[in-house]
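Technical note accompanying the year-one report. For the benefit of new consortium partners, we illustrate the data format agreed upon in the data management plan: each record pairs a sequence with a structure-token string. No post-processing was applied to the example shown here.
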Amino acid sequence: MEGISFIVRVHNEEQTLESSLRSLTGFNFPYEIVVILHKCTDRSKEIAETLQKELPISIKEYVYPISRAGYETMATDATSVHSIVYYCNWCVSHAKFAWKFKWDSDFIGNNSLVEYLNSRSWLATTPTKIYFNAKSPDSDNCEGYLFTGNFVFGKYYFWEFHDMKENWLRIDSNITIEHASKLSNRKLYWNNEPWFMTDGDEAQVVRSRYEILNMFCGKEPVGQARASDPASKDVFWNVINNESFLNEKGISATR
């Protein structure tokens, strides 16, 4: 079906959520906004429910705790309900349109983005996966956000990414998304204790792997997966250099 499903993952985003969702207007094609609430303890759910009266919003809730990007993702099997990879694919499964837009809850859609999407040129692209520039007050980030077809997220070291060999279209750099927050900002949830510091067989396995990563690849910086954190580079290359050893310990970069 022609149209776009904007997939918005939300974990305690009351500061930016309303402005982000309100920016998804002015389109000349069918669209929906799928808000995925993940263990929110702030006003995020209330904000989303209020905006349902104005915008084509559907709300889903994901109930499982999730391994955060970084060592936690490395230590967790991609097929686990606690994996960010599984979570992202679960979110996408709730879209009703063929095209999906991975929309962060601090994104602001500006005129350049609206004009590009209203041109509908994305419907005729040969690559069915499109990169956009996301500008924040302290840096720029280019990532694949719009996609269709048999796309699935896959584990890639610390993150949930597409297959790195896939053919993506990189559009005009003047077409941008605005970040409402700095890329270097640390979310409060990074200070929370990991979910696997609990009882259970899977928790024990993931906890053991996490401890191995910290021991052999260096102590993980808090919120290290943020692209602007220089400390991330050292631990990332330590993982690369120890990949064979980590595989022997059941720690995979892609599974």
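Partners are asked to follow this layout when depositing records. The chain has a mean pLDDT of 90.
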